[in-house]
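We treat protein structure as text, and this decision shapes the records that our systems exchange. The remainder of this section carries one protein's record, kept here as part of the documentation:
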Amino acid sequence: MAFTMHSHSGQFCPGHAVDSLESIILHAISLGYQTLGLTEHMPRTSVSDLYPEELLPTPQATLDSLFPRHEEYLSTAAALQQKYADKIHILIGFEGEWIRGEEYGSLIGELAKDARVDYFIGSLHHTAGIPIDYDKALYRTAVEACGGTEEGLYEKYFDEQLEMLSALKPKVVGHFDLIRLMSEDPGRELKSNQKVWGKVVRNLEKVKEFGGWLEMNTSGLRKGMAEGYPKREIAEEWIKMGGRFTFSDDSHGIGQVATNYLRGLDYLESLGVREVWTLERETHPGTVDGKKSGLREKSVAIDDFRASLSLP
């Protein structure tokens, strides 16, 4: 039973992704997906949080569009959930952004209350308020803001991640070690730095404490990394704790749906993992009397996941 718990469309992440939400759903169905988690990025609250491509036509115009776009996304997703209910199990969520803790924590909590929302992904794309996965220039700015060393940036990232985990307790923890992407040495052994590794283990323990899942996110592979997220030493530590994985392509358009999925499944099997986890709505599609659907945790054997994929 193939699935993803993390996806984006160009319709609701313009400039960041491509293709309409419906076309992505249809493509996922054609590849054998049986569950599709929709997780467009949440709105941000300040012009300083915008990415460079969002500054036109004006930064304020972009900012003013974000909350209406989020509402349009939820309405569209709910309609598509109904339309394709006999072909695919659509979960409606969003990707949370932890930029300024208290402000964004409160906003994520409010957005998650919507009856149409099944779950959210807890993610960091910023450290010290600076994007860390956009380009090398901004990454270097973040390094300088954290004392001028990558070790300092890693420490700050995992400290801010702990704040997010403690406040939100997300069921799905997005790309746990995204901080590696723009690093001068993305494959470096984190255990070689006791302070950084101690924070990694501390954060894993927090996720295990509240019953969250790490996503095996294959997007790192398509971005040229040797391993997806999380890297092997982190995954091994998580497995020792008895932690569970979900599975995601983190696609940003049709061309990235299921990208490197076989490599990702092989990676998990090489770690001794035999199952991944997803969610299933108890009320599907839609809601009853404006109330959220209950959710069940569902185990999927990797063998079954692989067998259900229909890749070109």
